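Section 3.1: Structural characterization of target chains.
Under the original work plan, the team committed to producing a structural model for every single-chain target entering the pipeline before any wet-lab resources were allocated. The record below documents one such target. The sequence was received from the expression subgroup and is listed exactly as submitted; it comprises 201 residues.
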Amino acid sequence: MVVRQQIPAAGGLGLLLRRGEQLQIIDPQGGQSGDLVAFSQDGRQRLSNGRTFDYGGKIYLSTGDVLWSDRSEPMLTIIADDVGRHDFLYSPCSLEMYRIQYAVTGYHPNCHDNLCGELRKLGIEPDPLPTAFNIFMTVDVRADGGLVIAPPRSRAGNALIVRAEMDLEIAVSSCPASSCNGGAPPRPLALEVLRDPKLNP
């Protein structure tokens, strides 16, 4: 059984993903990046970009690569990828980021608040929030080590599918930052969960 949910533009969504279930993240309109964070169901393990880089030996992840926890256990495996380019370097955009980098005054929607809010609904205290896996976000590393954000390569209908390697609490945000979306305003993302009837009778 496939359950489809939509993440509003600049919004977030949280869900429980059982071991062996698959999560498909879809870019319905194209060019939209999204942030994904994962915690073990008991909250004791969280997604780790550092451990993932350690064990995979690379910073660009795609089909076949594993996303690891901060306790060195596999959390998610990428089993299909239409785009082939995502980021695991940048932390989720935050209110402080908009203030410091863009001199924004007042409130601005941001992935940090979206992800934390959705995780708290699931009973997870996310403080501190780990670095998110930034789906469809393109970041190039220059020879001098500088980072350059380029437009996402996703086209309408492109998707990434990950498989849970343990019971997980997942949160995904449709990134509000135009710099991550080729200068365009934020657009929705969609999630589909392939639930195993044996796990979810």
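Residues 88 and 133 are 5 Å apart (CA to CA).
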